[in-house]
Amino acid sequence: MSTTTQDKARPFEWFRSLGQRGRRAFVGAFGGYGLDSYDFQVLPLGMVAITAYFSLSKPEAGLLTTVTLVVSAIGGAVAGILADRIGRVRTLVLTVITYAVFTVACGFAPNYETLLVLRAFQGLGFGGEWAAGAILIAEYAKPEYRGRAVAFIQSAWAVGWGLSVVVYTVVFSLADPDIAWRILFWTGALPAILIWYVRRNVTDAPHVAEQRTANKNRGSFAAIFKGELTKTTLFAALLATGVQGGYYTLATWLPTFLKEERNLTVVGTGGYLAFLISGAFIGYVTGGYLTDRLGRKKTFTLFAVLSAVLIVAYINIPEGANTLVLFLGFPLGFSASAIFSGFGSFLAELYPTALRGTGQGFTYNFGRAVGALFPTLVGFLATSWGVGGAMVFGAVAYGIAVLALLWLPETVGRELT
């Protein structure tokens, strides 16, 4: 066996191959996306308390998530253009500052209307962070390791989600719900530590920065809708719509489903979510390895089908079978998260360097915005169907994702040029 083959067989060779600068960038991007997740999840976790505090209907509650995700499409598109024009790292810092500041501000909202506006502004940073961080690592990673390298960044979502559940469980166990949801938002100040680290230690991949700055057409939004890129952009956006429509249906309404239809306490809900989140973390990592081995498209298809089937199974478990709900949460979290593992590498490989941030930022966050309509639809239907019955539309979203893949190319092993 050659030395090269031995190196490739080492479990974390993908991390070693990033080099010193790449590893520092990995820490910054991982932390940025993890805290992005944390600041998003405080809303669905506090949703029951917020709904009671402001006397909201379910459609109004669902709109809080939808407005965050719709505005995140604007934030993602703008951040993608900025990433191509001013660099990946500088854009990363700007997005983290934005989502942190407005998450904290949400905790001071005096009424529903103010909370809705502040949550919209939080969406600007929330949508932009992933575009900058995923591209940063994709450009440091070698082609044969790109899928798993970016997938580990994606796994930070589960870490941030898990941290938010721990904090939620503690805060709501110790404080009255009327103040506990505000405290939860105030803890969104955590990203300030990350900003200090990124500014001191992280830089763009040198060879990519040279290519980017040499191109006068970098960051052109119109260019991603020209020539062959038109079809790529449209169907990549549709793929992102399906995957995120399914995911955000789960992320927004699952805590409410567990409390209202399964009658779980705060501590009980945290325990059930722990199974879901553990499955999510392992799913992200496993999906990264599979996307390098099976290819991007086969991995997307596999986990879209599994996620749709598991959603339907989860919401149709008979009353009284809460143990089954507990254990089925693991494969549900696994599949719904593993499907995201290929996004960072796949979207990066679909676009040239000068348009990579723009293309990735727009397609992923367009999907986030349109996919955000699913939680609102579930909120409206829940009044007559129940939360569990309405959540079946998450399975429909995954079907849309599979259809979009028919018009997109396989990109595994592609060099970033």
UniProtKB/TrEMBL annotation:
<feature type="transmembrane region" description="Helical">
    <location>
        <begin position="362"/>
        <end position="382"/>
    </location>
</feature>
<feature type="transmembrane region" description="Helical">
    <location>
        <begin position="234"/>
        <end position="254"/>
    </location>
</feature>
<dbReference type="InterPro" id="IPR036259">
    <property type="entry name" value="MFS_trans_sf"/>
</dbReference>
<dbReference type="Pfam" id="PF07690">
    <property type="entry name" value="MFS_1"/>
</dbReference>
<feature type="transmembrane region" description="Helical">
    <location>
        <begin position="150"/>
        <end position="173"/>
    </location>
</feature>
<dbReference type="InterPro" id="IPR005829">
    <property type="entry name" value="Sugar_transporter_CS"/>
</dbReference>
<dbReference type="GO" id="GO:0005886">
    <property type="term" value="C:plasma membrane"/>
</dbReference>
<feature type="transmembrane region" description="Helical">
    <location>
        <begin position="388"/>
        <end position="408"/>
    </location>
</feature>
<feature type="transmembrane region" description="Helical">
    <location>
        <begin position="179"/>
        <end position="198"/>
    </location>
</feature>
<dbReference type="InterPro" id="IPR020846">
    <property type="entry name" value="MFS_dom"/>
</dbReference>
<feature type="transmembrane region" description="Helical">
    <location>
        <begin position="299"/>
        <end position="317"/>
    </location>
</feature>
<keyword id="KW-0472">Membrane</keyword>
<keyword id="KW-0812">Transmembrane</keyword>
<dbReference type="GO" id="GO:0046943">
    <property type="term" value="F:carboxylic acid transmembrane transporter activity"/>
</dbReference>
<dbReference type="InterPro" id="IPR011701">
    <property type="entry name" value="MFS"/>
</dbReference>
<feature type="transmembrane region" description="Helical">
    <location>
        <begin position="89"/>
        <end position="110"/>
    </location>
</feature>
<feature type="transmembrane region" description="Helical">
    <location>
        <begin position="62"/>
        <end position="82"/>
    </location>
</feature>
<feature type="transmembrane region" description="Helical">
    <location>
        <begin position="266"/>
        <end position="287"/>
    </location>
</feature>
<keyword id="KW-1133">Transmembrane helix</keyword>
<protein>
    <submittedName>
        <fullName>Sugar phosphate permease</fullName>
    </submittedName>
</protein>
<feature type="transmembrane region" description="Helical">
    <location>
        <begin position="38"/>
        <end position="56"/>
    </location>
</feature>
<feature type="transmembrane region" description="Helical">
    <location>
        <begin position="116"/>
        <end position="138"/>
    </location>
</feature>
<feature type="transmembrane region" description="Helical">
    <location>
        <begin position="323"/>
        <end position="350"/>
    </location>
</feature>
<feature type="domain" description="Major facilitator superfamily (MFS) profile">
    <location>
        <begin position="25"/>
        <end position="412"/>
    </location>
</feature>
